[in-house]
Design brief:
170 residues, mainly alpha, Substrate Binding Domain Of Dnak, Chain:A, Domain 2, 5 helices, rod-shaped, coiled coil, Endophilin_SH3RF, BAR_dom, AH/BAR_dom_sf, SHLB2 protein
Length: 170
């Protein structure tokens, strides 16, 4: 009732401290930017949307995500197979073997980067959103409910005093 009356402009609303309001605004801003950064980093690390959904499902089911071959490693595999077909002694075969080995190392470095970024960067962001932010939201709801209770009590006291004053006059 108090919430509805406040929204309709029929009841007074106790204002929170300006510093506290600023903290709430900063917390909201932090949450929004953290979500955006987390999503965009996930897109950068795994551009394939269906693979991201699959990884998300594995994560929610607490299962290990199967290891994927990176594009660099796949290219290295193709180059090595082609080199074997052309002959490792031919100039083209030798070149394919050298470039394939370099691609393999690049693919392994990419895999390590993805693993490292996920552990060192994405995990703390997720921990904030799933842990700290939930706590902040819960405490904010409790505060809002307490404020509404306080305002409702203030309104009752005000009505009682008005009724008392009216009774004293008559």
């Amino acid at each position: 009732l108090q919430f509805t009356e406040e929204k309709l402009g029929q009841a007074e609303k106790t204002e929170l401290d300006a510093h506290f309001e600023n903290l709430l605004a900063r917390a909201d801003c932090t949450k929004n930017w953290t979500e955006k950064i987390l999503r965009q980093t996930e897109v950068l690390l795994q551009p394939n949307p269906s693979a991201r959904v699959e990884e998300f499902l594995y994560e929610k089911l607490d299962r290990k995500v199967p290891s994927r071959v990176t594009n660099g490693e796949l290219l290295a595999q193709y180059m090595t197979e082609a080199a074997n077909d052309f002959g490792p002694g031919t100039p083209y075969g030798k070149t394919l073997i050298k470039v394939g080995e370099t691609q393999r190392r690049l693919g392994a470095a990419e895999r390590e980067f993805i693993r490292s970024a996920s552990i060192s960067f994405l995990t703390p962001l997720r921990n904030f959103l799933e842990g700290d932010w939930r706590t902040i939201s819960k405490e904010r709801r409790i505060l809002q409910n307490r404020r509404l209770d306080l305002d409702a009590c203030k309104a009752r006291v005000k009505k009682a005093k008005a009724a008392e004053a009216k009774a004293a006059v008559t």
